[in-house]
Design a protein that fits this description.
Number of helices: 5
Largest sheet: 5 strands, parallel
Number of domains: 1
Number of strands: 5
CATH topology: Rossmann fold
Strand order of the largest sheet: 2-1-3-4-5
Distance between the termini: 32 Å
Oligomer: single chain
Length: 141
């Protein structure tokens, strides 16, 4: 009998953003959905997040950001992910993200963007649809 692999998610707070209530709500929701969640804590660097992602062999990197620095952080993060050959990791951003920045984030390589007030069910469904476990599944547009 084949068992489904548990989805492993890293939730990160990069930069000087010190607000993590939303990230913690998401962490508990994802755990309740049967996913394994690792939380970096506050004020992490892009390099620290990518190293934890490598060490923990995560399927998803989720960045929670409320500081307004999402565009610069996304560019740095996606560059570092490519440098460390983590191209198969799903990357999502959530938080205070203006509607006009969603396309910019996606063009930088972010797979999913969930502005404040996105539904938790929408986030977990996106992750379940898009995580690759050994190929075969295609990422949704």
């Amino acid at each position: 009998m084949e068992t489904e692999k548990t989805i492993r998610i890293l939730i990160a707070k990069i930069g000087l953003d010190g607000h993590d209530v939303g990230a913690k709500v998401l962490i508990f929701w994802l755990r309740d959905q049967g996913m394994e969640v690792i939380y970096t804590g506050l004020r992490q660097s892009v390099e620290q997040v990518v190293e934890v992602a490598l060490q923990e062999a995560v399927d998803v990197i989720g960045v929670s950001i409320l500081s307004g620095s999402h565009l610069s952080i996304a560019k740095k993060l996606m560059k570092r992910i490519r440098e460390r050959d983590l191209d198969d990791v799903l990357v999502i951003f959530g938080g205070t993200i203006p509607k006009d920045d969603v396309a910019v984030l996606k063009s930088a390589g972010v797979h999913g963007v969930f502005p404040s007030h996105s539904k938790l069910e929408e986030i977990s469904a996106f992750i379940k649809r898009n995580v690759k476990h050994g190929g075969g599944e295609e990422k949704c547009p």
